[in-house]
Design a protein that fits this description.
Strand content: under 5%
Largest sheet: none
Shape: elongated
Number of strands: 0
Helix content: over 70%
Radius of gyration: 16 Å
Length: 67
């Protein structure tokens, strides 16, 4: 089992990881506005967790693909 996993090219593993991050990003962006701002004192753009999720996940994808 371990030997078969070692035979997968690193580029393929990076692409699979990036696809996973993109799926999580899509899930975060599709959350309803009411769900995102539940409990927030106001609906300022900087409080929008969807924006933060996209920013953080794009950084993660970049780092994952670079290193």
């Amino acid at each position: 089992m371990i030997e078969s996993l070692k035979s997968i090219p690193i580029g393929t593993v990076k692409i699979i990881g990036a696809i996973f991050f993109l799926i999580v990003m899509f899930w975060a962006v599709t959350r309803p506005r009411a769900y995102i701002f539940r409990g927030a004192p106001d609906q300022s753009a900087w409080r929008d967790l969807r924006i933060w999720a996209v920013i953080v996940l794009l950084v993660q994808i970049y780092l994952y693909m670079k290193f």
